[in-house]
Each structure stands twice: as C-alpha cells, then as structure tokens.
Amino acid sequence: MKSLFNLTAALLVSTATISIAGPLSPEGRAQIADYVDQLTPRINEIAHDIWLHPELGYKEFNTSKLLSGELEKHGFKVETGVADIPTAFVASFGDTDGPVIAIMAEMDALPGFSQDATASKESIDGLADGHACGHNLFGAGSVGAAIAISEWMTANDIKGQVRLYGTPAEEGGSGKVFMVRAGLFDDVDITLHWHPGSSNGAWQDKSLANISAKFRFHGVSAHAALAPEKGRSALDGIEAMDYMVNMMREHVPEKTRIHYVITNGGKAPNVVPDFAESYLYVRHPDPKMVAEIFERIEKAAEGAALGTGTTVEVERIGGVYSLLPNDTLGRVMDENLRAARPIEWTQGETAFATKLQESMKRKEDLAKVFSVEDYDFGWEGSYSTDVGDVSWTTPTVGLGTASWVPGTPAHSWQAVAASGMSIGEKGMRLAEETLATTAATLFQSPDVIVAAKAEFEKARGDDFKYEALVGGQKAPLNYRDETIID
Predict the structure, then answer these.
(1) φ and ψ at 23, to 5 degrees?
(2) Handedness of CA 295, 297, 298, 302 (dihedral sign)
(3) Residue 122 pairs with which residues in a beta bridge?
(4) Beta partners for 277?
(5) pLDDT of 486 higher than 90
(6) With 411 labelled, which of 28, 30, 213, 231 sits at a CA distance of 20 to 30 A?
(7) Is-contact 480 59, C-beta < 8 A?
(8) What does the alpha-carbon distance between residue 29 and residue 246 come to, in Å, rounded to a whole number?
(9) pLDDT band at 26 (very low <50, low <70, confident <90, very high)
C-alpha cells in the first residue's frame, strides 16, 4: 500500500486526517534521546559482537540473524531472504496509513583487516577479516535508531511505518541494488542512512557511479617451447584488452576512472594459459556515461578475443548509481545533528586517539570530534556506494559521525581499532539520536516530505527511468570467494 505522502495534490490534502504535531519539540527530542540511552548497552553489545565475528559480503549470516532478531524482539515484523539474498531482510513497525520512513543498515566486513582494538597494529589470532569501514557500528546503530523511533511512535500514537533494511555486501557486492531492483523501496517516502567517519556532518555529497566486472578469457593450452603454435593464450587476450582499455583513457569524458587487476594470468611461464581473468571497474559521476564506457570496454574485449583466437565471457559483479543528494532533507538532518547530545571523550579515549594518530601520516585536530562541520551540498566525492541506487528511487539523506579518530582513512586497520571500542560506540550513539530525531521530524512534517519529493523529482528529471547497472543478473553471492576490495 502506498503511503499518504505521495507527491500528488489529492494525497497532500488527505494528510489532514493524520495527527500532525508539527516540528519536534524539546520534550520530544529528550524523549527520543532517553530511548537511545536506554538501548545503548544492548546496541553496544551487538556492535561489538559483530566486530568480533566479521563476515564478508553475502556471508553475513550470523550478523543478519543478530540484527533482525533484535528488531523482532521489539515488535518489528521481519521478512528475511528478500531479493533472493539470504542475508538481506526488511523489518517493519507500524502501518502505511502515514509516512513510510526507511533506515538502512550495512553489515559486511572487509577481507584482510584483522586488528585488535588497540592503538598499535596488532592482529587477532585466527581472524583474517575486519570491520575496516565500521559496518558493525552502521548495522547496530541503525537498528538502535529504528527501535528508538518505534518506542516514540507508540508513546505518541504516531501514524506511519518505520522500516529497517538489512543491506548486505555494500563493499563491492552492490547488495542494495538488487533490493531496489526487486521493488523493496517502491513505497518508501524517505530513506535515512549514516556512516562512521572521523568527523560529524550532514553534508549531502555526490559519489561516482560504477560498473565492475570480471572478464574471463578462454584459449588453448600448449607447451610454450615445444609447440607454441598449437596454443592460443588467454593471457594474450587479457593483455590485448587491457592495452586497448588504456588507449581509451585519452578518449573518455573527464572524471572517468578505469582501474583493473589481472586476477589470473596463468600458472607457469612454460605453459600457454588456457584461462585468464581480469577484474575491472569503471566510474563516472553520470550512471549513463558509465554504462556507455563499459559497453566500449566490452567491445574491446570482444576484439581482443578475436585477435588472439580466444573467447571471452563477461560477468558483472556490481553496478551502482551515483548519489542523488537532497538539500531539503540534508538541512533537516543537519538541524537534528546539531541539536543532538555531542560526543564527549574520557581521558583514556583521548590517550588512545593520540597514540593511534602517531601511526597515521596525517594528524587532524581531535577537537573536531566534539563539534559539527559546516553544512555543504553537492560536493563531488570520488567513492562509490550502492546507496546511490536507493537515492534515485526514494529521497535519501545521510550523515557521518566521528566514530574514528580524526585523520583515519576508511579501509584501514586504524578504523577497525576504533570501531571495536568506545570511541566507535560514542559516534554510533550520536548517529542513532540524529537518525531517530530526523525520522520523528519527518513523521510530523508532511510539508517537508512533499518538498523533499518535489526536489527529488526535479533532480531525476521527467524522463528518468531506473535501470540497474548490474543488468538482469542475480546477486553474486559468492563474489567474496576471491578477495575484492571496493
């Protein structure tokens, strides 16, 4: 059922039947902050459990069960295995007689980042992977925010529905894309998300769309010295394709990024390899441009195969849209972030942060943890995220909180260390309160939802039609069988 807040005049009039309390009052903020505080011990426990047991993309079986189970305990209706992804789930509280507000929860770890919660580099015995992007905090914090909102809705008889989307495999697996393609966000009015970082801000930036794929060449094996004429080298096919791709760099639009690795080039120099594989990314701010450039690369691969007497098959591993920022929602998020209780560190946490900074090339002022950065809209980042597809389907807004030490790069052992201790937990708590108060503001402000949707429709354009960049393929559930880092 569609919510009452679809962008039509008729439905806008119908909001008069809903109890609207207006902007969130100081009492309402205090009530939500109290719910967040009550939940904090358990949410911290969940975040640390996930941190201790990191699971890679599409393999987050225990993590998914832990998060969805906690929501179920608090009265959420949970649907698991959505979009044909075993670890994806949707948890709902309330009904669709009012706005449908979604919150996303990422949960996957990264390969090769075993690290203890210490200020020096120290791996954990028996553990190969780690939460170098803080998704243990992301997943647990989003669940905490959703539960806090549900408590507030019950206490204040708020009409509407809050949904928690358990979204696996953000790191290169495009998990949200398959959920969007399955129509799981079609009736959502507004979507919220957050991400751990080293500062606090509700900036609404842009990202790069991308397509990633594996190019697999097949040839004919032969002895490289005794009978090379009988062989057809799959590696020759890879190298011919890569050469043509590198020549393309002069003839692609500015801001294009193309990068690749040869994941399999053969096993021995004296054997003509009958199989070789290259793993490639294409990025650009415009999703349409990414699709066009990737099509050219596919043609280059076909030409390389023809010229080397080999064959090639292409498997798209991922494909994501760029972020479509929303200024209306960004300003609401910024206001709620500034009104939330700021982060405070103990002397022990400050000492930990100071020591951790010694391992980093760039040292930033620790004081930025305790304040909020200036609001900014439309800055172009050089990263990619599957949140992009959601943002082209429903108005979407996010924030970052200081869950790491200032200067910490994502995908680093320093990020793992902070994500596994109280510095990460305090950043997570700030995100929970901000997400919950932002959702509460939206539940009580139909005019803001309407304005956000109007901005969203204008930004997409009248002729926009969503087509997933992953094409029609199923989610690559086994893509982590080999190491892939986004």
Answers:
(1) -55, 150
(2) positive
(3) none
(4) 216, 264
(5) no
(6) 213
(7) yes
(8) 54
(9) very high
- Tokens 């260390």 — which residue? 417
- Of 136, 140, 104, give the one whose Cα is nearest residue 386: 104
Provide the whole-model pTM. Answer: 0.91
Q: With a cut of 60, say whether residue 5 has pLDDT above it.
A: no
Contact between residue 337 and residue 397 where contact means Cβ atoms under 8 Å apart: no
CA distance 389 to 320: 6
Whole-angstrom CA distances from 317 to 36, 231, 419 are: 38, 29, 28
Angle at which helices 234-248 and 287-308 cross, to 10°: 140
* Residue among 431, 437, 413, 434 at smallest CA distance from 43: 431
Handedness of CA 364, 398, 284, 178 (dihedral sign): positive
pLDDT at 8 over 60: no
320 contacts 389 by C-beta, under 8 angstroms: yes
The model's pLDDT over 428-482, given as tens digits with 9 standing for 90+, comes to 999 999 999 999 999 999 999 999 999 999 999 999 999 999 988 899 999 888 5
For residues 47 and 38, give the distance between their C-alpha atoms in angstroms, rounded to a whole number: 16
Structure letter (DSSP) for residue 254: T
User: Dihedral (C-alpha) 51, 401, 195, 38: value to the nearest 10 degrees?
Assistant: 60
Q: Over the range 278-297, which residues count as b (16 or more CB within 10 Å of their CB) and which as e?
A: bbbbbbbbbbebbbebbeeb
Amino acid in the structure at residue 40: T
Strand-pair category, 190-197 with 396-402: parallel
Interacting residues of 325 by C-beta distance below 8 A, sequence separation 6+: 204, 205, 206, 377, 378, 391
d(CA 222, CA 73): 61
pLDDT at 19: 34
Amino acid (1-letter code) at residue 87: T
Contact 80/71 with Cβ under 8 angstroms? no
Query: Please, which residues have CB within 8 angstroms of residue 253's CB and are 6 or more apart in sequence?
Result: 284, 289, 293
Cα–Cα–Cα angle for 201, 206, 209, rounded to 5 degrees: 140
Task: Please tell me the distance from the alpha carbon of residue 25 to that of residue 21, in angstroms, as a whole number.
Answer: 9
DSSP letters along 285-326, please? SSHHHHHHHHHHHHHHHHHHHHHHT-EEEEEEEEEEPPP---
